[in-house]
Design brief:
alpha/beta; Rossmann fold; 2 domains; seven-stranded parallel beta sheet; five-stranded parallel beta sheet; binds 1,4-dihydronicotinamide adenine dinucleotide
Length: 347
């Protein structure tokens, strides 16, 4: 059974009409299960929320959306005009919402601040282990009865320096795992985390993390200030053969610069769960189509690159906690007009 996170219970509150966009079968299952306790009226739509589909939200007090629903000005204007008051993001990141326009329209935006930071941290760790020990390549070789280990040599994680950019919920969980491997962990975050320091994490300036790390893992939010945080000048500062892991948001990496780094060998390994141009690709089966994205096509040619399709969050525990926290937040809003998980413009 998934470990349930503790959410305040707001039962016997009025039932809210919720239009859920980008619904997948697992969303429906987890929300129906969690909704036994809350009794909201949920309509499940597979479509993404966009200007073209916004009319589906007509008369729904709340829309519930995920990472690839883009809530820009025109979409917000449309849903606000047809009765929506509450936007419930069933994810942690909120870079896909125009918060300024939402605030002007008096729309409340809530999110799930932490549903399982361990899920994402463990996935980042999985990418490191697979890349370092070439597990993806070994899997394919063995299936072809090729038991040669030439070219599969990795390195001990113990004693290596891991740089963590962003030590919030996920970055902290990730740092703890890396400390457990016997790594030295250095981190950059404008708001250092004291318990993590006591556990042995050393804080440094951003360029100190770039220059001093064998592995760099990104766990900060995406916003205009972190756009292309890893660009050609950042890569130039890094150690030869550095491993870069991104489970946060695609546009933290300047993908073209990363490809140059991979071609020159400056970047020794790349593990990404997110990609700058993922929104038209991820969560859909494109196996019968010709890939038009040249950068993704190039990335797929490198043996030292592993790409997963934004699945780092995808554990039983996380899915169950997302449904529970989202519905609890909607109930809190219905009961009090406020929600502790609301996003304010200052954040
Ligand atoms: P959080 O809000 O707990 O932590 C973010 C941390 O980043 C904070 O400590 C903040 O001070 C720090 N930060 C802000 N600006 C920074 C900067 N310029 N440089 C370095 N650090 C900075 O968020 P959480 O839950 O740890 O999530 C982190 C990110 O992970 C989210 O923003 C989201 O983009 C991504 N994510 C990815 C998932 C996936 O499935 N791949 C699932 C969930 C989240």
């Amino acid at each position: 059974m998934p470990t349930a996170i503790k959410t305040p219970t707001f039962t016997n509150v009025r039932s809210v009409k919720i239009a859920m966009f980008s619904t997948r079968p697992y969303d429906k299952e987890s929300f129906l299960q969690a909704n036994h306790k809350y009794g909201h009226q949920i309509s499940f739509f597979e479509a993404r929320l966009s200007v073209a589909t916004a009319s589906l939200a007509f008369g729904y007090e709340s829309v519930c959306v995920f990472v690839h629903d883009f809530l820009d000005g025109p979409v917000l204007l449309k849903i606000a005009a047809t009765g929506t008051r509450l936007i419930a993001l069933r994810c942690a990141g909120y870079n896909n919402v125009d918060l300024e326009t939402a605030s002007k329209l008096d729309l409340t935006v809530i999110r799930v601040p932490a549903y399982s930071p361990h899920a994402v941290a463990e996935h980042a760790c999985g990418l490191i282990l697979a890349l370092n020990r070439n597990i993806h390549r070994a899997y394919n070789r063995v299936r072809e009865m090729n038991f040669s280990i030439d070219g599969l040599m990795g390195f001990d994680l113990k004693g290596k320096t891991v740089g963590v950019i962003g030590t919030g919920a996920i970055g902290s969980a990730f740092s703890q795992i890396m400390l457990g491997f016997g790594c030295r962990v250095i981190a950059y975050d404008p708001q250092p985390n004291k318990p993590l320091q006591e556990a042995g994490v050393e804080y440094a300036e951003l360029n100190g993390v770039f220059t001093g790390s064998d592995i760099i893992s990104l766990h900060c939010p995406y916003n205009p200030g972190t756009h292309h945080l890893i660009d050609s000048s950042a890569i130039a500062e890094m150690k030869e053969g550095v491993m870069i892991i991104n489970t946060s948001r695609g546009a933290l990496l300047d993908t073209a610069a990363v490809i140059d780094g991979l071609k020159s060998g400056k970047i020794g390994h790349l593990g990404i769960d997110v990609y700058e141009e993922e929104s038209d690709l991820f969560y859909e089966d494109h196996s019968n189509e010709i890939l038009q994205d040249e950068m993704l096509a190039r990335l797929l040619t490198f043996p030292n690159v592993i790409i997963t399709g934004h699945q780092a969050f995808f554990t039983k525990e996380a899915i169950s906690n997302i449904a529970e926290t989202t519905l609890s937040g909607i109930s809190e809003y219905a009961a009090t007009g406020k929600c502790r998980n609301a996003i304010s413009l200052q954040k």
